[in-house]
Amino acid sequence: MPHLGSTVHLRALAAAALRPRPAAPRPVTPAERVVIVSASIGAGHDGAARELERRLTAAGVAVDRCDLLDLLPARLGRAVRDGYHRMLVRAPWVYQRVYTSTERAGGGGPLARALLRTAEHRLRAALPADTGAVVSTYPGASRVLGRLRLTGRLDVPVFTYLTDFSVHPLWVAEGVDVHLALHAVPAAQARALGARDVRVGGPVADPRFRPADPGRRMAARARFGLPADAPLALLVAGSWGVGPVRQVALELRDCGAAVPVVVCGRNEELARQLRADGIEHAYGWVDDMPGLMHAADVLVQNAGGLTSLEAFAAGLPVASYRCIPGHGLTNAAALAEAGVAAWIRDPAELKDVLADLIDGPRGLLQREAGRALFAAAGAGPADEIARAWRTAGPPQVPPALGRLLSPPADPAGHAPGVASARRRARQAVRRLAASGAVACALWAGAVGTAVATTGSAPGVIHAIGHTLDLDGDGHPGGPHQEDHHS
């Protein structure tokens, strides 16, 4: 007969074996969520954000997107967007002066910084707890995220995806870990402006933009009611019809190099005016932009943004002509420097350059150069983001800000307490916020003065519109047409 103690011991072992075992601890892995911050003020910003989201999602990464303009208080985001639109339409010379002055100054002034600081807390609060990296496709967002990194309020890497071929100083923000460029030309510009880690990730474009075979080309022309055999020049005016669109359309028609096909976006009045001028193929809102590019022989554009990249992906040669001020001119210069687009600066050259692009050696070379942008990019910017964010190091803190946020040394040589350091950091942030509030008050006063002086909205336009966006394409939003105000 077994000993009683042995029996109890065996029963205890049996009971322990029947009890559920605690799960083995799971290995700690990096967060698999990327947040993309864009702004609906520009088609290029939102278009790049959508395509990055699609590619990252296909790679198995959870992606959230948010709009910086929605995070500005008191509906200032709408004022910024509407003001930018009105400035481009009514006073483009003002936009050029603002763009040039801020370019020389190395970025925005204190009013722009104060306005952007109002979004810092909201943007930080909008990031999910499992965020592993943040990607900006808008310079204002890069500025906000860079400050969050520098002040220790954001402990995940920040990437800026440069959406254009030219880089305004506002794009290069301290605290951003990696700047991703489309090509070596904008990469060199970003480095010259002080960006530390710049990588060429290549462009992104919706996969529907791809070269068309003869059958698809003819089907697209039939679908839009376009001539089957005549050369076609696609003139894209964007969602607002910004720039001398009517003048360019008439010049295209009169030079005889190609039949103009004009997309006016939401500007239906411009489309009606063009049809009254005898421009038969003038459209307002168009959902099937890939189809129009398949039908066309050359793209004529005036801003150099996302539409140009989509044309490169579709194998369509690109000409920059009568560009809008600011980023339109700098993008035209950068595209020409990269050898991927012609920049027509003399109207007398319009016919010959278009003919060479449509059916000459120049067009063949530019088609190859445009397609090579995508082939040379390798894995592309989305894979670069997915690969690199796990290894990004701490942000580079400017010495002045580092001294501001660092606690004073203990005279006895002891390390200060964590709570004390955090308290001093919070005090420093509050001082920065207070100075930002004062600047905002001054900014509001400046706006009021402008309104009182001009008696109309353009005063607000000039004060608000340029403070945030000196590179965007100014689009109020939309399903796909917004891709083509670039």
Question: How is the secondary structure organized here?
Answer:
Blueprint: H1 4-18, E1 33-38, H2 43-58, E2 62-67, H3 76-90, H4 92-105, H5 110-117, H6 120-126, E3 131-136, H7 139-150, E4 158-161, E5 178-181, H8 184-192, E6 198-200, H9 214-224, E7 232-236, H10 245-255, E8 259-263, H11 268-276, E9 281-283, H12 289-295, E10 298-301, H13 306-313, E11 318-321, H14 327-338, E12 342-344, H15 350-359, H16 361-375, H17 381-388, H18 399-405, H19 418-454, H20 458-468
Parallel strand pairs: 1-2, 1-3, 3-4, 4-5, 5-6, 7-8, 7-10, 8-9, 10-11, 11-12
Helix pairs in contact: 2-17, 3-4, 3-20, 5-19, 9-12, 13-16, 15-16, 19-20
Enzyme class: transferase
Family: Belongs to the glycosyltransferase 28 family.
EC number: 2.4.-.-
Q: Which tags fit this structure?
A:
2 domains, disordered C terminus, 12 strands, disordered N terminus, single chain, six-stranded parallel beta sheet, 486 residues, 50% helix, Rossmann fold, alpha/beta
Gross morphology: globular
How much of the sequence lies in strands comes to 5-15%
Q: What low-confidence regions span 5 or more consecutive residues with pLDDT below 50?
A: 1-30, 397-418, 428-486
Number of strands: 12
> Averaging pLDDT over every residue, what do you get?
77
What structural class is derived from the secondary structure elements?
Answer: alpha/beta
Question: What would you report as the Rg, rounded to the nearest angstrom?
Answer: 27 Å
What number of structural domains do the residues give?
2
Estimate percent helicity.
Answer: 40-55%
The largest beta-sheet arranges its strands as 2-1-3-4-5-6
Largest sheet: 6 strands, parallel
Number of helices: 20
Q: What is the distance, rounded to the nearest whole angstrom, between the alpha carbons of the first and last residues?
A: 92 Å
